[in-house]
Amino acid sequence: MVKRLLALFAALLFLAALPAQAAPRFKVLALYSGTWDAAHISFVKEANERFPQLAAQHEFSYTASTDWNLLTSPGLSQYQVVMFLDNLPQTAAQRSGFQRYMDNGGGWLGFHVSAFTTEPGNWPWYHNTFLAFRSNTWGPTTAVLRTEDRAHPSTTRLPATWTSAVSEWYSWNNDLRRNPDITILASVDPSSFPLGTDPNQSWYSGYYPIMWSNENYRMLYANFGHNAMDYPNNRPLSSTFASEVQNRFLVDGLGWLGRR
Fold first, then answer.
1. pLDDT above 60 for 42
2. What is the dihedral of CA 83, 48, 211, 176, to 10 degrees?
3. What is the pLDDT of residues 146-172, one digit of tens each?
4. What are phi and psi of 107, to 5 degrees?
5. Roughly what angle, to the nearest 10 degrees, separates helices 244-258 and 38-58?
6. CA distances to 125, 140, 169 from 201, in Å
7. What is the mean pLDDT of the chain?
8. Which of 7, 56, 81, 178 would be a feasible disulfide site paired with 107, CB 3.0-4.6 Å?
């Protein structure tokens, strides 16, 4: 009995000597569907492995869920940042909940296909205020990107030009340069042209924003998040987290979004 008590006492002393677990600086909720296109599913799997690692390193919490109805819950307010990994709200209640969250100062980080639509009129606030999909390159490639605004908290550690991870790239119905509320953070550098591997779906010139923020909201959009795939064998051929510079944007961008 004495030995057991001494062992218990020693264990309690050991636990008391451990440093207290720090509370997360902010909380992130990542929403995804994981059902559409192997390239998007591959990115989601990567994101749900990589972001918990980044969360541990940078003192935030990361919760991933396929329940988009969380956007309608009062509990949404506990999260300082919501991510859309591979989709966007589909029901009227989900859309209203998300807009209310943003209007109340919530933070948002959207990736790649969260911008995709063929019917922007179905949700004009989202597609005309945030995003405006038009077409895409094919196949997925890296791109040389030019940092447009190096004063934004998400881009202060980015060089003037840098190479992205592999992705499929989108163009937009609206010229974001004409929107005074939009701060374009990075765009395709002309040295990238031609961009794409299919001559009929490649870009040869033009101006293409890749990352931006709308100054009326605490938000960031990043056009990457589509891995190259060996579709017949369902095997990823690239990683969205392969660019160390791009990862800096994610870490610093989340840090900015998480501060209220």
1. yes
2. -40
3. 999 999 999 999 999 999 999 999 887
4. -105, 150
5. 60
6. 29, 11, 10
7. 88
8. 81
Distance separating alpha carbons of residues 182 and 179, to the nearest angstrom: 6
Given this model, what pLDDT does residue 12 score? 46
What distances in angstroms separate CA 32 from CA 82, 86, 114, one per listed residue? Answer: 11, 5, 10
Contacts of 188 by beta carbon, 8 Å cutoff, 6+ apart: 143, 144, 145, 146, 169, 195, 203, 207, 208, 210
Find tokens 């919490």 and name the residue.
61
Where are the domains positioned within the chain?
25-258
Range list of β-strands (E), 87-217: 107-111, 133-136, 144-147, 161-163, 170-172, 182-188, 209-214
CB atoms within 10 A of CB 70: 17
Contact between 44 and 86 under an 8 Å Cβ cutoff? The reply is yes
Query: 150-161 burial by CB neighbour count: b if 16+ within 10 A, else e?
Result: eebebbeebeee
Write down the pLDDT at residue 154.
96
Residues 81, 82, 87: CA angle, nearest 5 degrees: 160
Task: Please report which residue ranges of the chain form alpha helices under DSSP H.
Answer: 2-17, 38-58, 92-103, 124, 244-258
- Angular region, 2: left φ>0, alpha ψ -120 to 50, beta rest: alpha
